[in-house]
Amino acid sequence: MRQIYKSVFSYIKKTTVVLAALTMFLPLSVSALNSKNVNVNQDVKAPTTSPFCTNLPTETANINSKLSVLIANANQNWSTKNQKWQTIWTNVDQNVANERAKADATRQAEFTKLQAKAKNSSEQQAVTNYIDAVNNAVSIRRQAYDSARQTFRSSVEAAINARQSIVTQQFDTLQNTVNSAVSIAQASCTSDPSSGQSVHSLFQSTLRNAQATFQSDRKSDATIVSQVKSLAATRNNAFTDADQTFKNTITSARQTLIQAFTKSANNASAVN
Amino acid sequence: MGEDIKSINSKGFTAIEGALIVVVIVAVIGVGSYIINHDKTVNKVNTVATKNASSVSSSSNIPSNGTTSSISQLTQNDAQSENSVDNSFDTQVQSNLNSANISTNAVGGSYNASNL
After folding, report:
1. N or C of chain B: less Cβ packing under 10 Å?
2. A184 CA to chain B: closest CA distance, Å?
3. Rg (CA), chain B
4. How far does the CA of residue A59 sit from the closest CA of chain B (Å)?
5. Among residues A210, A125, A177, A161, which one has the least CA distance to residue B100?
6. What tens digit of pLDDT does each residue of A153-189 get?
7. ipTM of the assembly?
8. A14 shares its domain with A59
9. pTM reported for the whole predicted model
10. Quick check: A166 contacting B, CB < 8 Å?
């Protein structure tokens, strides 16, 4: 009996130890098993980042870089402070000054020959009056030319500045649209890197529309060339008016001189 | 005798008078011819100068004879020379505007949406 009791007691003891051991390791096993399941689930949903989302930062940097360079170049061309524009005005002034210096020298040589034809004091006075009248008329005509030239210049600069302002708005609109499209695409790629196809399509269509809007706005720029041609025509009309006034003045001075020579019985045809 | 002398004197006076008339006529013809020729020359010079003014802006083509007509022509040609300076630079202004337009249009091509 005692032997049976011992045997049963030993069995219970072993069973208790085994159960205790099992109780200790069961949570670890379940936990490990659960952990494995989670990993399996994660492998199934693994986000495959689309090539568009992968390349977006590089593409964005390229677009922004090209936009910046091209906009800076265009702004430079529209700036009236640009050396290109200022050189034109400087060259006009320089060439006009050269023409005037040559004209003054030639005219003075003619005056000297004319003075030599005066035989007496009254004729000399008449020649002096004629020279003064011509020089004065030349001076008045030059002032009229300078004024017309200055008006033309400032009108051209005003037209260019106005155009630059419009162009700057066009640049801003394009750049803002591009920036907005990039921001939307970046946000979409971050929230769902695998949804590249739809993000890509939206991105492309937005940028395509931005280009179309920009090019449509650009058509208005063609008018500035005709605008400047019109300003040049106005300037040339002012030149023509000044020429006519000049012609009337020197014709009158010429008649006065010829009459003075006729009165003093000199050969009037010599100065005609 | 007295009548003969009167007749001779009368004939002599007529001869001198005739000679004077001839001299005056020759002088008038000579001066007239000179004036006509001179006017023709002046007109010819003016015509040439006008033609030059319309085709050449340089004042060096105007005959330098110290007359009011040559001075008139010179001063009018000077105006044309100045005007031609402005017109020649108008071409540069338009060229600059075209460059500005082209560089602005280029901004629209800063990307190719289909290749993005």
Report:
1. N
2. 15
3. 37
4. 7
5. A161
6. 999 999 999 999 999 999 999 999 999 999 999 998 8
7. 0.70
8. no
9. 0.67
10. no
